[in-house]
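Lab notebook: predicted structure, single chain.

Context: the supervisor wants predicted structures on file for every construct in the current expression panel, including those that have not yet been purified. This is the next one on the list. No modifications to the sequence; it matches the entry in the shared construct table.
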Amino acid sequence: MKNRLWIFYIFLPSFLFAQNGIRKAEYFIDKDFGAGKCFSIPITEGDSINLQSVLLATKLLNLTQGDHTIGVRVKDGNGLWSIPVFKKFTNSWSKIVKAEYFIDKDFGAGKCFSIPITEGDSINLQSVLLATKVLNLSKGDHTIGVRVKDGNGLWSIPVFKKFTNSWSKIVKAEYFIDKDFGAGKCFSIPITEGDSINLQSVLLATKVLNLSKGDHTIGVRVKDGNGLWSIPVFKKFTNSWSKIVKAEYFIDKDFGAGKCFSIPIIEGDSINLLSVLLATKLLNLSKGDHTIGVRVKDGNGLWSIPVFKKFTVNIILTEIDTVYQNIALICFPNPASDKLFLQYNGQNELLIDLFDINGNMVLSTTLIKEKEIDVSKLLRGIYFLKFKNQELFKVILQ
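Prediction complete. Output recorded below exactly as produced.
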């Protein structure tokens, strides 16, 4: 017979509640640790208990598949604990569609920090805890509360866990704007092992990304030494939220905030990363892959984290007026998505061809100094830029 779960309310013992009201409530799964020693149920004095809401909270406990028994007891104003009320249930009884958490203070169901979730998933509480490294909590002890919501719109009671802010060191961090590309695949945040994340510094870096005007959402996640990525911490912001007064860049090696190559800027401007890259003029850059990093500073003296972009340099030997000369070329960015930029330091026009992985030419264009190529309509994959059948770059479109 298909398992059915009904909504139960506890009215035991009813004469106690009528006279004194219930002051505390708790539950346990399978094993009773004794009155006052089990999982707490938040309650307003005098309330009854929605057993379905309590059962829904078990989704946070990573229970084994199969049958379990939940026990719930309450305590009155005289300090008397009731006997437990038991209910058998199966772990797969209900799918969750939303989840959220709070630190120390509960703002109410549906009003706390969102936890990204695939419908039906259980919650990895350690991954949620790791996300607190982004919130710049004070040192010491804190309490995290997590609740989930089922397809019928019912929120569970919170599941609480105490933790100390220094409980885990982070070794990597990353962020994304509006779209999450998945753990380990977003914009890197430079970090010293064990550091917390300054979210304002990360937000300031968005000035380098040429975002559209209006509202956006930034997501930040961190990774601990065991390889576990936290859930993202989200923050909404408006692109015009802060003015920048200084900017700088470095190639391959970061010399520290305020110690790199200056970028001329008018206060409040955003940064054109391509323009910065072209300004390097390819001076003394070796053949191969490089990384440019750009950071900005606001009026309060806060430097952003660097925004990184990979690019490729190639050196070709070409005949110009019967004289062979070395010509340096840049391909930016690589990997690319919709636009590909080329730059070289020669004087004459170059004919550049783009081939797919099967050797079919999909694009041909001339290059004088610099060129923007629209690759948005090409299939995602690997391509090769060539000059006179000489391979210049392997380009990845993603």
